[in-house]
Amino acid sequence: MKSICLYFQLHEPMQLKRYRFFGIGTDHYYYNDFASEDTIRYWTENCCLPANNTLLEMIRSTNGKFKVAFSISGLMLELLEQYAPEVIDSFRELADTGSVEFLGETYAHSLSSLYDTNEFKQQVKLHSAKIHSLFDLDTKVFCNTELIYSDEIGEQVAKLGFKGVMVEGARHIMGWKSSNYLYKHPYADLTLMPRNYEMSDNIAVRFSNWGWDQYPLTAEKFIGWIVSTPAEEKFMMLGMNYGAIGVYNHAESGIYDFLKALPYHAMMNKITFATPSEILANNKAGDVLSSTEPISWADEEKDLSPWTGNDLQGEALQKLYSVGERVRLCTDKRIKYDWLNLQTSQHFYFMSTKHFTGNSQAHTGQYESPYEAFMNYMNVLSDFLQRVDEQYPTSIENEELNSLLKTINNQEQQIAELEEEIEKLKAEKQEPEKEIKKAAPKKAAPKKAATAKKTTEKKAGEKKAAPKAKK
Q1: Which H helix or E strand runs over 183?
Q2: What is the percentage of the chain residues whose pLDDT exceeds 70?
């Protein structure tokens, strides 16, 4: 029996405002709140709410047999909490069905796995905590930003406790191997779960393409393709951006009707749905799959060129991650918030010249050109770096700074321990005193009562004796 594992990645950044050179050193707020709210509202109305409602209907109509997984960045969850809390509620409703799994990823949907191992670990843990706090679920399978993966990244993921990781079934690493199997990491205790990108893109990319030779795509035709795969291939991983439902493929394209029909045609052909964790539990990894160089799910090349392909992106990334250690030592919440937002991968994607032809209308994003995106980002980054430098000057080497801060932290810890010991001794000293005070009234009470009785009797005797004295 075959299974379909369907998962979606969802992230939108906090958009940067037009930040001029003259704002450096004076203006420390970098965001266009109105544009960010408009974007989230658009996603809410066209994708998140209608898509969530459709998936919930599919789960209920199949008595929980339809299953799906999500990889949602921490920053996206923050934006939804701020501008569209009803979407968080709808995800909670999906989580409560028991048919939905949330995958681990970087909190800021960042490139930290490539540039800063410590930052990567911290963001993954922060994201897992966010998912648990919102949905009371633990993340067991990892899905990195834009499906970026290499053997080295896989080793880091395994050390963080994940048993499985989503990877792109890129031809240059798969070779003759099929993406419809599980694979082993070369040396870490980690299972690799390749995405079948051709079948995934049939929905995400080609569904609304009138020029496609398979247009229109129906649920019956799609399930038929899965049925035709070799019998020994027990599952298929279908991963895509959540915008494939309602944003890139508009409701008028029939994408919602296509989704609703999938479970019916799947069950007719004895095909089930499973979460990534269930795929891991029910299937064994076979051969080893290695990727010495990082891959992603982007474009034909399946590499990092959309984010790191030119000198503009390289300079921005180098300057950003050069202060990672200092930011992590910082206790300023505003700096930490900006640090996360400045890492999101879209900022560097907007600087890509890969598909830029000089026509501003052809450039994807909020800028007219990658050069404008670069200048705006670098102005923001310059102000941010100044703020970090004010707290931890670059004139002090990282090792020296770590040593000083370690000494300070140790002193603070010793002071805290001594204060705790003092409070403990005070409490121990006060305890016997309290017992003495409690016991004292009980012993004094009879004497007091006896004295009062004698006084009363004496007064009563004097009153009786008084008339006799007059006689």
Answers
A1: strand 183-184
A2: 85
